[in-house]
Known about the structure:
Elements: E1 3-7, E2 10-12, E3 18-25, E4 34-39, E5 46-51, E6 57-59, E7 67-72, E8 77-82, E9 91-97, E10 109-113
Parallel strand pairs: 2-10
Antiparallel strand pairs: 1-3, 3-8, 4-5, 4-9, 5-6, 7-8, 9-10
Amino acid sequence: QVQLVESxxxxxxxxxxxxxxxxxxxxxxxxxxxxxxRQAPGKQRELVATxxxxxxxxYADSLKGRFTISRDNAKRSVxxxxxxxxxxxTAVYYCNxxxxxxxxxxxxTQVTVSS
Length: 115
């Protein structure tokens, strides 16, 4: 059974940084393209970034240069380093398969950027 547990969110001022973590189980993690998604209030969930099994990454154009996705296969974890955060980044952040998300979404982790 797919289990995804996100952590690392919080309240941060504009310009600040956060590092999100996702622990995955019940999947062939090392062979799986993983992604970070986010959902802002009143909006659809959107894809933020992906990283494939060998470390190739893709980012939403608006976020490239501020966010960095990485993975640690030994820890079965994927990370999202977020720098120079803006109020528009406020959302619940989720991890999942980067191409075809599983039904089993985690609880997500709340990121709030506010002064």
